[in-house]
Design brief:
alpha+beta, five-stranded antiparallel β-sheet, 29% helix
Length: 79
């Protein structure tokens, strides 16, 4: 799944992130991605390695990669 429109004016994208193993990891990744302009919601799940991001417009993959790197994890790609 790449990006799908959730509601008018928002885009939901699911990313795969490797290395998350706990709630602290989820919080770190969520916090960094939340700092990207246009992001309205982030839900990270360590159990699946998936991070669901809702944004006003499609996000630049490199911005997401940089945020995940800053949190200390690796962006594998889109789920």
């Amino acid at each position: 799944m790449t990006a799908q429109t959730d509601t008018p004016g928002s885009v939901t994208t699911v990313y795969k992130v490797s290395g998350m193993s706990c709630g602290h990891c989820e919080g770190s990744v969520s916090g960094e991605i939340s700092g990207i302009e246009g992001v309205t919601s982030v839900t990270a799940a360590a159990s699946t390695g998936e991070v669901t991001v809702v944004s006003a417009a499609p996000l630049d993959d490199e911005a997401v990669r940089a945020a995940v790197d800053e949190a200390g994890f690796e962006l594998v790609g889109k789920a």
